[in-house]
């Protein structure tokens, strides 16, 4: 059985590959990458695969039994790119596709959810066996704000008192590796999130505890937060999107208490304190 991983050189992809290497022989794995040279250090076979060049996908998937379809990073183009991958998988005789979707994708208010819903629908209509991993927020998404909070003396955002059930990227990668190498997951949709949800007030308190400084959380209107992000160099469209995701978080979009992720990986998800400590050491 050969397992292929799309986006193998990305942050989640690299972690998934490392997790899989502890479970199966590296020769049974196949990294799919737009630029194969970037995957040379993964220690597994590499094939060129470009979402926008379907002929490369067909060749890369030849002889593959199971595909980890890590969602594309190109927001706005994901559905089309995923369609190319799913069609190539079906043509190549892939038996099972595991897709990394979004927490509560079927009902989520997040602007990211639509393309994930479309991809889930395509998978279910494809005739392939499928498993959907609805990944919650990565804790790393907020750890990027730690340095700025220390520099500015406050953590800022628009999430209000919304509870965020994030988990470390490594936790989600481990879940993918478990699903890819164990039985009983076909036809399942898993809502994956961290064990312990927190507010941005609580994140600020943890930063304060670990640094010995008083770092408050300042909740801002969406436009105000977007303006600060843009002032710090983010493209205006991305700044508005991030601020909007925070507003969605204030309304519960990033919360889940099912603990399905820790059940899959057989251990508690990475505590917020551990992620903050890592961010402070970076």
Automatic annotation (TrEMBL):
Listed GO MF terms: NAD(P)H dehydrogenase (quinone) activity
Organism, scientific name: Castellaniella hirudinis
Domain of life: Bacteria
Xref: InterPro entries: NAD(P)-bd_dom, NAD(P)-bd_dom_sf, NmrA-type_oxidoreductase
Keyword set, alphabetical order: Oxidoreductase
Name of the protein in question: SDR family oxidoreductase
The keyword Metal-binding is annotated on this UniProt entry: no
Residue ranges occupied by any NAD(P)-binding domain in the UniProt entry: 7-180
Protein EC: 1.6.5.2
